[in-house]
Write a structure and sequence with these properties.
The chain is elongated. Strands 8-1-10-9 form a four-stranded mixed sheet. The protein has helices at residues 23-32, 101-105, 132-135, 157-161, 167-171, 182-198, 244-273; strands at 9-14, 58-66, 85-93, 111-113, 119-121, 142-143, 150-151, 177-181, 205-207, 220-224. It has two domains: 9-242, 2-Layer Sandwich (Alpha-Beta Plaits), CATH 3.30.70; 243-274. Helices cover 28% and strands 17% of the residues.
Length: 274
Amino acid sequence: MTEQDTERVGFFTDTSVCIGCKACEVACKEWNAIPEDGLSLTAMSYDNSEGLGADTWRHVAFIEQDKVAMRPQETPGADESHGGSRWLMSSDVCKHCTHAACLDVCPTGSLFRTEFGTVVVQEDICNGCGYCVPACPYGVIEQRPDDGRAFKCTMCYDRLGAGQEPACAKACPTDSIQFGPLDELRERAALRVDELHKAGEPAAHLCGADPEDGVGGDGAFFLLLDEPEVYGLPPDPVVTTRDLPTMWKHAGGAALGLLTGAALSFVAGRKAGS
């Protein structure tokens, strides 16, 4: 099977049905043999993993909202005087961007685009330079402190090669995490948004599904019930290496100018000495 005849796959995470069970986190760690990242509460709700990192490739966020802090259109019929709250839960993961800055800056080829359209780190090639860490617009990639190598979600590349779905999607009991061909997922997600709007949830919207956004669309996108910032996602992510071609063009022009100046000075010096 070649890259040309392999359809790009990805994740669609429907946060409206996430129950915060963390089965995806456990399945990810078990399958990929990821070290534990702390077994104590972080004082951030019922969370013990805090965020994505080298040892957390899936992270379930718990966001508790008071009704008084929510916009009226998000809670049809809600009376602020009665108080109350709601939970927003979401399983975050590497976005496997269409335009991935981590790929642009990796000097060793450790990061590569697979035949499934995903982005994977080859840990045996990573030299620990860390260039990919600040390049990621989502803050997903992290280095392990013991040897400096970078790690992140591989979308279970080994399972995909065997015709299996990623461990996290397999373990999700509510189908909050859905895996499949990216085009099909986007169509399914758009229908789900319409369904929620009709059910009285006007704030439901997709995040990362637009191929025209700053990273060319995500390979892992979300249906959210509030603004991206509430879930810890950037509202308008942009590939951090977008200006590299222009920068290299300006640098080349400057270098050419310096060489031209040096050549003219050399010629002028020879003429003056003759």
